[in-house]
Structure formats: C-alpha cells, structure tokens
From TrEMBL:
<dbReference type="InterPro" id="IPR011234">
    <property type="entry name" value="Fumarylacetoacetase-like_C"/>
</dbReference>
<keyword id="KW-0479">Metal-binding</keyword>
<keyword id="KW-0378">Hydrolase</keyword>
<protein>
    <submittedName>
        <fullName>Fumarylacetoacetate hydrolase</fullName>
    </submittedName>
</protein>
<dbReference type="GO" id="GO:0046872">
    <property type="term" value="F:metal ion binding"/>
</dbReference>
<feature type="domain" description="Fumarylacetoacetase-like C-terminal">
    <location>
        <begin position="29"/>
        <end position="226"/>
    </location>
</feature>
<dbReference type="Pfam" id="PF01557">
    <property type="entry name" value="FAA_hydrolase"/>
</dbReference>
<dbReference type="InterPro" id="IPR036663">
    <property type="entry name" value="Fumarylacetoacetase_C_sf"/>
</dbReference>
<dbReference type="GO" id="GO:0018773">
    <property type="term" value="F:acetylpyruvate hydrolase activity"/>
</dbReference>
Length: 233
C-alpha cells in the first residue's frame, strides 16, 4: 500500500508517442551544450572545447501547438532547435557500441534560452540555470519510436520564425553523435528509462518575441510548432 501524500500528488510529465495510445513518461531532461561547430563560432566560444551538459526540469515541457508565455526577467529570449533522444533504459558508463540499445525513440525539441541572463551568468562564472531552466522552456514534439525510423545520424534540422527559416543544419554535423553523448553523459550520472536528451543546436539562433510563430523539424523524425504569447501575469 502506497503512502498518502501531504499535498496533492504531482502529475507525471510525459510526451505523446506517434502511433501509440500510451505516453512516454519523462524523468529528466538533459541538454548538450555546444555540439554544432557553426553555433560554437557564432556564440564566440572555443571550438576546441568539448560539449558539456546542463539540465531542465521535466515539468518545463510544452507540447506541440503550445502557446509559450514570454518569460520574466529577460529582453532576449532565443530559439534553439534540437534532436531529442528518449531513453527506455540506462545505466552508468554505457559504452558507445551499446548506447543505442537504450534508445526508445526520437523527437524534435526547442531549448528556449534567456540569452541575456545566460551570458551574464557566464561572465560571472555562475551556473546557467537562470538562462536555460525556466517555466515552459522545453517545447517538444511527440516521440517517434526507433523501431519505426531507426536511429537517424543524418538529415536536415531546421527552424523557421513566421515563415522565415533561421536555423538549418544536418545531424551529420553533430560534433558528438548520439552514442557518444549517451556514453559521456552516463559517466556523469546514472541514466534511466524516461530520460530525454536534447543534443545541441545548429547555427542561426536569434531572438523571438510575443506573437512569433515557430515551426521546426528534423527530417525523418517530425515537426514541432509553437507560438510565443504575452508575458505571464
């Protein structure tokens, strides 16, 4: 018999699954920083530095079609389209040749970023959470099972705002590919079923404002549409 809760039980964040009635429950959201060469260059960072990881909270997910309220404290929110990896199992120190055995499927996500706050934190050598981890900051499409599409390692990744393409790249341009990301992240933390990993963004990141309509996608995986609404009150 499970213990009762002293506050109402919290909902389980989840993503829909293409072709399935059931949903994919999300445990943690991990994000890879600086994993496309041209994005590293446009942000003025050292392209020789390896990618690193940061996190968002699972309840920051937003579904396809969502209206995202413009967040507080920022005047410079940016879009970052990413391939998302959804895990069905995990572990510590997963070798690259076994990494894809742990992947349930893939999705399209946007790492919304309060760029002004992120850059200010970086200058002060503080953590990035204030710039990266905020309410509604992780829009994500439905998950498509790898059993249906395999494990994409090439294909266009793109994002447009109000019909104008801003970001474009190819999965083949990932500095660290999906097996390498899983291998490296599993050295840092024990991965588990329900974890999702946002794998980095190509060049072309830019500001978005209330009223903007965003569409993005990854060839062979799917598309994601969201719009930016007024600030929450």
């Amino acid at each position: 018999m499970s213990a009762s809760t002293v506050i109402p039980a919290l909902p389980q964040p989840s993503l829909p699954v293409v072709g399935e009635a059931g949903v994919f429950p999300v445990r943690r959201i991990w994000c890879v920083g600086r994993n496309y060469l041209e994005h590293i260059r446009e942000m003025g960072n050292d392209e020789r530095d390896p990618p690193f990881f940061f996190a968002k909270h699972a309840d920051m997910l937003e579904p396809d079609g969502a209206v995202i309220p413009y967040p507080p404290l920022t005047q410079d929110m940016h879009h970052e389209v990413e391939l998302v990896v959804a895990l069905k199992s995990g572990g510590l120190n997963i070798p690259t040749d076994k990494a894809l055995d742990h992947v349930y499927g893939y999705a399209v996500g946007i790492d919304l970023t309060r760029r002004d706050l992120q850059l200010a934190s970086r200058k002060m050598q503080r953590p990035w959470e204030v710039g990266k981890s905020f309410d509604h900051s992780a829009p994500c499409s439905a998950v498509v099972p790898a059993a249906k599409i395999g494990h994409p390692s090439k294909g266009k990744i793109w994002l447009s705002v109000n019909g104008t393409e801003r970001q474009t790249g190819d999965l083949s341009e990932l500095i660290w590919n999906v097996p390498e990301i899983i291998w490296k992240l599993s050295q840092q933390v024990e991965l588990a079923a329900g974890d999702i990993i946002m794998t980095g963004t190509p060049a072309g990141v830019a500001a978005i404002v209330a009223g903007d309509k965003i569409e993005c996608g990854v060839d062979g995986v799917g598309t994601l549409k969201v719009s930016i609404g007024p600030a929450a009150k």
